[in-house]
Amino acid sequence: MEEVQPEGVGDKYSLIVPTYNERLNIALLVYLVFKHLRDVDFEIIIVDDGSPDGTQDVVKQLQQVYGDDRILLRARPRKLGLGTAYSHGLKHASGNFVVIMDADLSHHPKYLPSFIKKQQETGASIVTGTRYVKGGGVHGWNLMRKLTSRGANVLAQTFLWPGVSDLTGSFRLYRKSVLEDLISSCVSKGYVFQMEMIVRASRKQYHIEEVPITFVDRVFGSSKLGGSEIVEYLKGLAYLLVTT
Known about the structure:
With 244 residues, the protein is an alpha/beta fold. The chain is built from eight helices and nine strands. The strands form two sheets. Strands 3-2-1-4-7-5-8 form a seven-stranded mixed sheet. It has a two-stranded parallel ribbon with strand order 6-9. Helix 5 runs parallel beside helix 8. The longest helix has 18 residues. It is globular, with a radius of gyration of 17 Å. The N and C termini lie far apart (37 Å). 39% of the residues are buried.
């Protein structure tokens, strides 16, 4: 992976990580972020939705190790949706760039330097990780889940013409002001949220770049994607087709 050199202009990166029952993953994620962003000014904002498994206790221990200025716990009382989790984290972000990523290690922090380097080289407003270009891929999914994900993207590409290859991915870097604008424009709260964000970004003609990533299925815990999310996706696709 590329080494990121300090740009010298005061850029700071706020990583917003929503969690629910990620006690077994969050410490390793934080360690890997610190490992791969040695020369970068960043903070990690963990938005936990009342996890009953002790995730918040682990985060508080991590604050003792890394400092509560680098690890920010911004908890909520219960599960309130992915979109609102990002909105909540954004209120506490002090960086001028924001990274959104999952806590379950499916988004490996080793790609963060590539995201930052791509943004610095191109001046992009958004850098998104993609599984569907050369160098990207998926590891650990069965055939049905691969087909579901690929089918979702093909449907969206066909009807929405978003100009990016991976609409349902959720590993992205945004200029903070751009993310604030997009969140205020979006109405989706669940699985469709990521797709709506990137479609609206394309319609607003924000500069979007892509970085190939390999998505790895979670090692610990269970996936939160189920039949209800797929139904919501189809509803969201129809909504975006009409409104964008």
